[in-house]
């Protein structure tokens, strides 16, 4: 799956130019800014065009949301490039003026024999004490090299403060149990618990093949996996299947996430994992005209007690929605807050492929894979602002606004919001060297 995704993204280079009782959640606590929820003007800034060096040793085809460290650096992952073309993890560090960013390479993918450290799609998280954690969708010590089904690994990177060199440690390799019952193909970024526990998901494997939610604990230096849920335990995978988005956790320790498929109509679910059970909070419907949308690639966030996320299909226009899940008398209800492609030629964007981030004022930010002012396959960065009982969508940037899409095209990953209100992201294609860009939207 990771290889297929990489090939699909690689093909983007040749596309036509026309083309969430829990305000303490980590994702919201880290990145906040002023109380205003109104839309403001953003200026696009190209931080780094990948493949700027001959042979792309600096990486190409960035994928997955960026993460930021306390020092101000941002980290990302590339599907390809690096010294042997298998991809890399990169770091961008700003100068004192925040105008010039320097790229370095904490790690390369598949740098161990038979890709025991993982290869393919990588999703990143940053620990409070400094480590960078990566889940890598393929490879790993228990995977047969070249297997069409990835196995995957969880890796930590720790930087030596004196030498500034990074040390990689493989914490866990999946598919170590017959039939990959411990899971395979981790996709969404880890939730890093304050107690040093890691929580994540695998898109495949598990006891029933529909993926897992797992926990990793460091026991005397050995990371031990505990499966919290095996998906597809119910007939027709009514409990969901193929989790891929980010996990979040509330103040009570309950986990929330989404599945890409399964549910009552096989169009995905939003679920909760408590200490004792798995609960489907909502099942998306499968009809093209379903206003609530379907197939949620990204996870959910909590804002003001409600859950918010995106779907990539359905919604009346067939091209996705942003939605709100609110609870009334113990029942979660889906309310679409925006239907994409509501404007002519999808100028407002189409097909959001990742989740949302929120500022302290309650505004939501995300990206769409396609649509925008510059062609069907260009993509957008957008803001959703609540006005009374409704929501207003504002396109902050339409990609492929520059000749030959030098500003990037098709942003398939979500945005990262910093303390100053600036947004960071990647576009999978385009850029000065046609291999994607890292960008900033400066407020």
Describe the protein in words:
The chain has 443 residues and is mainly beta. The strands form seven sheets. Strands 2, 3, 4, 5 and 6 form a five-stranded antiparallel beta sheet that branches. Strands 11, 12, 13, 14 and 15 form a five-stranded antiparallel beta sheet that branches. Strands 16, 17, 18, 19 and 20 form a five-stranded antiparallel beta sheet that branches. Helix content is 3%, strand content 40%. The protein has a single domain (2-442), classed as 7 Propeller (Methylamine Dehydrogenase, Chain H), CATH 2.130.10. It has helices at residues 2-11, 26-30; strands at residues 43-49, 60-62, 67-68, 74-80, 88-94, 101-108, 119-126, 132-138, 153-159, 166-173, 184-186, 191-192, 198-204, 212-219, 222-230, 241-243, 248-249, 255-261, 269-273, 278-283, 301-303, 306-311, 321-328, 331-339, 357-358, 364-368, 380-387, 390-398, 416-417, 423-427, 437-442.
**CATH architectural grouping:** 7 Propeller
Could you give me the name of the CATH homologous superfamily? YVTN repeat-like/Quinoprotein amine dehydrogenase
User: Span from first to last CA?
Assistant: 37 Å
Category from helices, strands and their pairing: mainly beta
CATH topology: Methylamine Dehydrogenase, Chain H
Mean pLDDT: 88
Pick out the low-confidence regions: 1-37
Overall number of domains: 1
List the total number of helices: 2
Overall shape: it is: globular
Strand content: 35-45%
Oligomer: single chain
The helix content is under 10%
Rounded to an integer, what's the Rg over CA atoms? 20 Å
CATH top level assignment: Mainly Beta
Number of strands: 31
């Amino acid at each position: 799956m990771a290889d297929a995704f990489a090939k699909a993204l690689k093909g983007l280079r040749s596309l036509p130019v026309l083309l969430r009782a829990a305000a303490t959640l980590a994702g919201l606590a880290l990145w906040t800014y002023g109380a205003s929820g109104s839309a403001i003007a953003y200026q696009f800034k190209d931080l780094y065009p990948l493949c700027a060096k001959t042979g792309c040793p600096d990486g190409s085809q960035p994928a997955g949301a960026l993460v930021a460290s306390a020092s101000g650096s941002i980290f990302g992952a590339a599907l390809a490039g690096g010294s042997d073309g298998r991809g890399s993890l990169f770091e961008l560090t700003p100068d004192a003026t925040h105008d010039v960013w320097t790229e370095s390479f904490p790690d390369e993918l598949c740098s161990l024999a038979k890709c025991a450290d993982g290869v393919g799609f990588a999703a990143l998280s940053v620990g409070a004490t400094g480590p960078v954690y990566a889940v890598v969708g393929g490879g790993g010590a228990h995977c047969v090299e070249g297997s069409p089904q990835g196995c995957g690994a969880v890796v930590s990177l720790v930087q030596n403060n004196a030498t500034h060199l990074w040390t990689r440690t493989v914490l866990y390799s999946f598919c170590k149990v017959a039939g990959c019952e411990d899971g395979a193909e981790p996709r969404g970024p880890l939730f890093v618990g304050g107690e040093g526990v890691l929580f994540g998901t695998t898109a495949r494997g598990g006891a029933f093949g529909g993926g897992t939610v797992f926990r990793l604990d460091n026991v005397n230096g050995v990371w031990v996996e505990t499966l919290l849920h095996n998906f597809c335990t119910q007939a027709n995978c009514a409990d969901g299947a193929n989790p891929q988005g980010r996990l979040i956790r509330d103040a009570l320790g309950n986990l929330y996430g989404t599945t890409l498929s399964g549910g009552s109509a096989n169009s995905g679910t939003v679920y909760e994992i408590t200490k004792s059970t798995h609960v489907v909070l909502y099942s998306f419907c499968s009809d093209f005209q379903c206003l609530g949308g379907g197939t949620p690639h990204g996870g959910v966030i909590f804002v003001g007690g409600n859950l918010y996320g995106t779907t990539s299909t359905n919604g009346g226009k067939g091209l996705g929605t942003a939605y709100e899940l609110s609870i009334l008398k113990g029942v979660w209800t889906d309310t679409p807050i925006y239907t994409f492609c509501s404007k002519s030629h999808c100028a407002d964007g189409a097909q959001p492929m990742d989740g949302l981030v929120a500022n302290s004022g309650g505004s939501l930010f995300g990206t769409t894979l396609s649509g925008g002012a510059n062609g069907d396959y260009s993509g957008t960065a957008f803001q959703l602002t609540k006005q009374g009982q409704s929501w207003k969508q504002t396109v902050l940037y339409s990609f492929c606004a520059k000749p030959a899409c030098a500003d990037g095209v098709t942003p398939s990953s979500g945005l990262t919001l910093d303390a100053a209100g600036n947004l960071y992201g990647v576009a999978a294609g385009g850029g000065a060297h046609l291999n994607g860009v890292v960008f900033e939207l400066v407020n």
